[in-house]
Design goal:
The chain is mostly beta strands and 171 residues long. Helix content is 12%, strand content 44%. The chain is built from 2 helices and 8 strands. The strands form 2 sheets. A 4-stranded antiparallel β-sheet has the order 1-2-3-4, with no helix packed on it. A 4-stranded antiparallel β-sheet has the order 5-6-7-8, with no helix packed on it. It is elongated, with a radius of gyration of 19 Å.
């Protein structure tokens, strides 16, 4: 009996102690039910928005499935890997500092232990385009499902004459 309590405490601390990384929590934009469940929460699709913490003027929106049912309600369901992504310029683009090619912009757990979703950022220096990719990985077998979005670094209105080169900010 004691080992069950210890395991429950460990799982709770691990789950609660692993928030999103690299920036703020995403903002929930809306949810839509996709599968009706009679006595428990429905399965849903949820769309979130998040600002790039290193590149001012870029925001990404992603849609993820959220499991309902008893396991989803308890927070122990393993979420599927179907994630879509769209990133756009929403203002003048300014780099806040150096970044590594393929660095995590955002990371979030999708199951208690084994799966996490990641949005990574890269730079196509030849075209001066920021490239974002979302994927989920699983400790044991990985996940081939992914989505990519590009944001050209361009001036924002007539007063924004300086266009930075993303290649200058890759370490």
């Amino acid at each position: 009996m004691r080992w069950r309590i210890r395991l429950l405490v460990l799982v709770t601390l691990t789950w609660a102690g692993s928030p999103a990384w690299a920036g703020d929590e995403p903002d929930l934009i809306f949810r839509r039910s996709t599968v009706f469940k009679l006595l428990s929460p429905n399965d849903k699709l949820a769309t979130y928005g998040i600002d790039d913490p290193v590149v001012e003027g870029v925001a990404c929106h992603f849609t993820v499935p959220e499991r309902g049912g008893v396991k989803g309600w308890l927070g122990i369901a393993e979420e599927v890997s179907d994630i879509s992504l769209a990133c756009r310029q929403i203002g003048p683009i300014h780099f806040k500092g150096k970044t590594a090619q393929g660095e995590d912009m955002f990371r979030q757990r999708r199951s208690v232990f084994f799966k996490k979703m990641q949005i990574v950022r890269g730079c196509d220096a030849k075209r001066n385009v920021l490239v974002y990719m979302v994927y989920s990985d699983k400790l044991i077998e990985g996940s081939p499902k992914n989505s990519t979005s590009s944001v050209p670094v361009m001036p924002w209105g007539p007063t924004d004459a300086t266009v930075q080169k993303c290649g200058d900010f890759i370490e």
